[in-house]
Each structure stands twice: as C-alpha cells, then as structure tokens.
Amino acid sequence: MNVVLITIISLGALGTLSAIILYFVAQKFKVFEDPRIDQVEEVLPAANCGGCGFPGCRAFAEALVKADDISNLNCPVGGADTMSAAAGILGKEVAAAAPMVAVVRCNGTCDNRPKTSKYDGASSCTIASSLYGGETGCSYGCLGLGECVDACNFNAMYMDEKTGLPVIIEDNCVSCGACVTACPKNIIELRKKGPKSRRIYVSCVNKDKGAPAKKACSAACIGCGKCVKTCPFEAITLENNLAYIDYEKCKLCRKCVDVCPTNAITELNFPPKKPKVETAEAAE
Amino acid sequence: MLKTFSLGGVHPEENKFSAGKKIEVLPVPEQVSVPIAQHIGAPSEPVVKKGDEVKVGQLIAKSTGFVSANIHSPVSGKVLKIDDILDASGYKRKAIIINVEGDEWDETINRSDKLITEISLSPEEIVKKIGEAGIVGLGGATFPAHVKLSVPPGKKCDILILNAVECEPYLTADHQLMMQKGEEIMVGTQILMTALGVDKAVIGIENNKPDAIAHMSELAKKYNGITVESLKVQYPQGGEKQLIDACIKRQVPSGKLPIEVGAVVQNVGTTYAVYEAIQKNKPLFERVVTVTGKSVTKPSNFMTRVGTPISQLIEAAGGLPEDTGKVIGGGPMMGKALTSIDVPVTKGSSGILIMPEKIATRKPIENCIRCSKCVSVCPMGLSPYLLMTVSDKAIWDRAEEEKIMDCIECGSCSFTCPASRPLLDYIRLGKGKVGQIMRSRTK
Which among A126, A133, A208 has CB closest to B90? Predict the structure, then answer.
C-alpha cells in the first residue's frame, strides 16, 4: 500500500513540476501567428502552383496579410473572385486583374517546318536545347519533346501528334506560368485572355533575318514590318527581325493578320470573316 | 604491369582505321568561315571588316580577356562579311567569312621545314607569344594554352605531362603527328618546360601505339628530362586527372586543378603548335583532323586550315557513305553529332567520325536495374545512376553533395549502361544547374 502511495505522490509531483516548466517555456517561446493567414489560406485554391510568385498558397497568404497594398499581388488560379474574398477578410482594396492565358508562340508544324536532322537523345527539352538547335533549320522554335506539358499541373496542355506542337486547353489554363518557366526556348508567353477569349499574337520567336527564317519555316515571322505599318494603334514593335504585339495596346482590329505574308500572326476565337456559302447550304 | 589510372574506365573497340595514314595537306578551300568563338572563354572581337584584304596568319579577331584567344586568318583573300553561320550544334554563331585569293603568307612566318632546336626566349616571353599565337588545347577541350602555363602565385609546378594518349576510339591525329613531327614535338616539350621552369616531362602514350612509343622513346634519348611512359589502354586516360594519376600516381583533389599537385598537362598537338609558334612564328590556323568511320572508303588524317567546310574533308576521304546515320565532330565517346556537314573545322576539331546508321542510333531507354556498372566504370568515383535521378528530379543540393561538378563528362557510364539510359545527358544538365547555383552563391 505504502509503495502505491509513494509512487502516486512522486509521479504526481514530477508531473506538476514538468507542467509548470512547460507552461513557462511555452510562454517564453510563443510564436504569434496572425489568425488571418489561416483564413486567407482557406479561400485560396490550394493548388500550390507558384503562379503568384510565392512558394505555395500559404506563403502567398502570408504575403497578402503582411503587405499594405495588395493591388500588385494576384492569384492567377483563383482570379478576381478569390482575390476579392481574400481582400474582404483583410479589409484591403484589390483591383481585378485581367485574366491571362498561356499561348504557344510557334507555328512550326511538321508541314511548315521541314526536318533537317533527327534527335534520338534524352527526351527532355532542356537537355536537347543544350546540345543543339533543334531538328529543323529554325533554332528558336519548339523542340516538341513536351517539357511544358509535363510541367502543367492543371491538365491544360497536350502535345498534338499531328503538328508536333503543344496545345493549350484554354478552359483549364490558370496562367500559373509553369510552362513558361519550363520551356528552354522561351516560346510560351502569358497573354491577356481578351474579350470573349479573342486574342491576336505573333506565333513565332525566330530572330533570324527574313530569308533564312522563311527557308527554315514557311510560317516564320520574316521581320518585314508590314504589320507595324498597318497597325493603327502602334501596338506592334519590330526588334531583331521579329514582330511583337503588345496586348495592352492591341484593339483586336485584325488588320495585321490580313497583311502578314507568312501567316505568322495568329488570331484566336474570332468568328470567321466570311461565312462560307457551302456550309450554309449544307445546313439547309 | 603497365600503368593506368586507378579508378574505373572502359575499353571500347579501338577501330583506329586511319592509323598509319600519312598526314595529307588538304587543298585550301574557296571560302572559309572562321567562327569567333572556337575556345573556352570569352569570344574574340573581330579586328577586320568587310572588304579587308588579309594574309595567311594575320590577326583577324582579338582575344577579349585572359581566358580567351586570338584568331588568325587561315587563308589569304578578302573578307566577304562578318555574319551569323550555323555552328556544329545548329545554333547561329558569329563568324568571319573570307573569300580565298591565292595563298599569300605573312612574311614573318618561317615556312621552311628545318628543325630549330635552340630556344632563345625567356619563360615570360614564351607564354606571351603562345597567347598571341592563339593556341588552345587541341585535344578537343580548346582551353587557352597560355592560361594553363601561367602558374598562379603560391602554386608550384614540378612536372610537365604530355598527353599523347588519344584514348578516344577511331581518332589517330595525335598518333600520326607524333610519327611525322616527333622531333618538333620534342622541341615543343622543351619550350613548355622552359616556360614552366621544370626539368621533368613525361609523355604518356597508350600501348596500342607501339610504333609511336618506340619512335618517341628513341627521340627522347637526345633530350634532357623527357621520358616516355607506356600506358595500358583504358578510356578516359586522356582526361587530365586520369593521366596525372596514370603517369605519376598523384591524385588531384575534388574541385581543384592539376596545378594543385604540381603538374601541368598539355596535348601533343598543342605542343606541336607551340613549337611552330615559338620557332617559326606561325600562329595556330591549321590542325590535323582525322576523318574516319567503319564505311568510309579512305580513312585519312588531313592537315586542314581552320574554317574549311567539313563536307570538303569528307569528300577528300571518299565521300559520305550511303549508310551514314550520324556525322560526329570529335571522337565517339565525347564528340557531338553534327546537324549539318557545312559547318567549318575549328581549332578544337580533332576528328570527323562517320557512323553507319546501324550503330549510330540509340537503343530505347529502359529502367535502371541497379547493376551499378556505371559506378564501377566512373573514373571519378561518382554514382552516375544517382546523379541522373537527382538531376531529373531537380534535387540540386543532393547533386552538389554527390559531387556532380567532378564529372568529366567522359561518357563511360552511358557507354556501359545495359539499360541504355542517357546518364550523361542528365548529369550534364545537372552540372549546368549546380554550376549556376554555385556561381550565384559566390557573387
């Protein structure tokens, strides 16, 4: 009996002592964490894609809580809804950022860009591009090994076997930019989605002079400058034999598309200009 | 027992078809394209412009730093333009394109064949002149020679090692050069010894070249301090660190240069170029190139001007065989497949290897079976299978811990892998990334 009693008392005393020590230690080393971080993280999409520029959603939530002005922070995945929800929790102002989408600026399909060599090395764009310029005469264009598709976490890309180029599924693309970073040739760009998803962009990154560019790929930008002269809004610039359309200035008038001699300028999601007579007849 | 390096190594089929073929002087082409980046380091700066008349041996592009090299005109004629041309890897690089007119040499170059054994210059003057002559490592790495010869303060060099191993299968350029220009190489060695202030030099030759070993040993008797070391055939014995280990049994520590153990390594081709630069005042604008392959009708060794299109060399060796699968610049182990045969010969072109399609294509990649053959052949004692995995998974800190930067890219691992995994491709990717990270850290 005596033994039981001693045990209870000594263990009880030891437990109380430890509790007291732990209490003071907890007080001393207490880490204050803003409860709003948890709340903001709750409304974020939890994709942890890094599209915002921070390593994961929690880091972004911390940044949102910490920053005084959050107008330059944006979660591309959640978009305006998520950002206004986060701003509501924090009581801060946020301007809705224009939705973006990735575009592949290369139209070097197997038909447009004849092969001049064959690569049978490791199936990685980064490795291939460090070894040589590519299987065709164009050393700027898509290598077609699909590193961008591997990088995409949202099922928004696939390789078109017919053209050998990656295709972006607009509805799934959250513009996180993972493919942009993955591409060693810097072909993929994030551009403004545009009204009704209508976009115009130069689908080429070849900086060669006109003749070699055209020889390597029939859909290459040859740097002729016709689009620059045609554009009424000064949205197009020409640098290193390559035209670039500023999506902030572009008013989607499509004049440049018409004048481009190599069809290097791509328009997306526009209604066809002249409705085809045959299709109308077929419908009847 | 013959000496060799202590760790790993492989012995691929030697296939030295062009061995014993006398060096032929290739006719000067009608047009040359001389790239301005032919060496490791900063690209040179052109000092000629469109329309300029140039002579053979005239400076056409100036070195732009300590680790950089001068480039001299390989032909006489008129500069057509300075433009971007396709290089061996299919990228556009700047080159000086010269239309050839006649073959008029700079007057200061001594064109006689007479051997000049007397060395009149001081060590500093020799290093300076080697730098001016634009000499780079001709084994293929193209590291500027004067940089290696400038021993950093606090370090001491006590031995010169001459790399005459030519461990790459197929290639015979150095072998043939030794047979025909042995005396000149001996004098070149003496010049390098003077420049470094050493009294010992070892010429390392693999024993698949018994004629070269006999010839060089005979010549070495006449010169003080030079010995010839016969080595067991083992790839990659031509790697600097492997050669030092094989010849003098000193191990270069990880991440350090050979000078750390008091040795400087130079290639025999480079040594011959040094002889010509110092004794004949001839800058580096031509070199011996082996053109070979299993189906090549006339495997040959050509003395070729820099800037000559590779297609012309292939033509001289009997044309492109019908079953060609790949044309490789360099040897089969470390060379690179060319995307076009119109690219020019550069200072680093040791060989043109034409591979039949049957043996040129890579086998399909299979899963790693953990046989650890790659580990046992790695001459640097690394674990290639692991380095490939961490590079693929982008675990760069682990790659650094596993000493990825020690890889000499010899390709023994990829060569030996029974699952045909592209080990070296991934390791090279990892090396690039880890190197970037390490450099950004020191900034």
Answer: A133
Residue A150 lies in a domain: yes
Q: Any residues with CB less than 8 A from the CB of B442 and at least 6 apart, and which?
A: none
Cβ-contact B403, B427 below 8 angstroms: no
Per-residue pLDDT of chain A (284 residues; tens, 9 = 90+): 789 999 999 999 999 999 999 999 999 998 888 888 999 999 998 888 888 889 889 999 999 988 888 888 888 888 888 888 888 888 888 877 788 899 999 998 988 998 888 888 888 999 998 888 888 888 899 999 999 999 998 999 999 988 989 999 998 998 888 999 999 999 999 999 888 889 999 999 999 888 889 988 999 999 999 999 999 999 999 999 999 999 989 999 889 999 999 999 999 888 887 655 554 444 44
A83 and A186 both lie in a single domain? no
Task: Say whether A127 and B428 touch across the interface (CB within 8 A).
Answer: yes
Residue among A115, A117, A120, A150 with most chain B CBs within 10 A, to mutate: A120
pLDDT in tens, B146-192: 999 998 888 899 999 999 999 999 999 999 999 999 999 999 999 99
Does B186 reside within a domain?
Answer: yes
Chain A partners of B90 at a C-beta cutoff of 8 Å? 117, 132-134, 139
Between CA B306 and CA A59 the distance in angstroms is 56
Cβ-defined contact of B337 to A132 (cutoff 8 Å): yes
The residues, any chain, with a CB within 8 Å of residue B256's CB and separated by 6 or more, are: none
Domain of residue A50: give its range.
35-90
Which residues of A are less than 8 Å from B91 in CB distance?
A: 132-133, 139
CA distance B143 to B68: 8
pLDDT tens digits along A230-284: 999 999 999 999 999 999 899 998 899 999 999 999 998 888 876 555 544 444 4
Contacting B residues, span 45-104, partner chain A, CB-CB under 8 Å: 84, 86, 89-92
**Residues A170 and A260 placed together within one structural domain of the fold:** yes
Provide ipTM, 2 decimals: 0.82
CA distance B73 to B75: 5
Kindly write down the DSSP assignment for every residue of B76-142, as one continuous string. -EEEEEEEEEE-TTS-EEEEEEEEE-S-PBPTTS-----------S-HHHHHHHHHHTT-B-TTTT-
Q: Residue B92: closest CA among chain A residues belongs to which residue?
A: A139
Residue B336 near chain A (CB below 8 Å): yes
A122 to chain B: closest CA residue: B422
pTM for this prediction: 0.85
CA angle B218/B219/B225 to nearest 5° reads: 105
Please tell me the distance from the alpha carbon of residue A76 to that of residue A97, in angstroms, as a whole number.
9
Beta bridge partners of B96: B34, B82
Q: Which residue of B has its CA nearest to A209?
A: B84
| A58 and A168 inside one domain | no
Cβ contacts of A126 on chain B, cutoff 8 Å = 429
**Position B158 in a domain:** yes
Subunit contact A117:B425, Cβ cutoff 8 A: no
Q: What's the domain range around B434?
A: 373-442
Residues of A with CB under 8 A from a CB of B: 116-117, 120-124, 126-127, 130-134, 139, 208
Q: Do A126 and B429 touch (CB under 8 A)?
A: yes
Residue A17 falls inside a structural domain: no
Query: Would A242 be classed as within a structural domain?
Result: yes
Pair A40, A117 in one domain: no
Selecting from B339, B365, B425 the residue whose C-beta is nearest the C-beta of A132 gives B339
Pair (A201, A128) in one structural domain = yes
Q: Which among A116, A127, A133 has the least Cβ separation from residue B425?
A: A127
Does residue A6 form part of some domain?
no
Per the model's pLDDT, the better-predicted residue between B112 and B89 turns out to be B112
Closest CA to A99 of A41, A176, A168: A176
Q: Where residue A260 sits, what CATH number does that domain have?
A: 3.30.70.20
Same domain, B166 and B270: yes
Do A150 and A190 lie in one domain? The reply is yes
Tens digits of per-residue pLDDT, A140-154? 999 999 999 999 989
Tally C-beta pairs within 8 A across A and B: 47
- Nearest C-alpha neighbor of A131 from the set B188, B87, B147, B170: B87
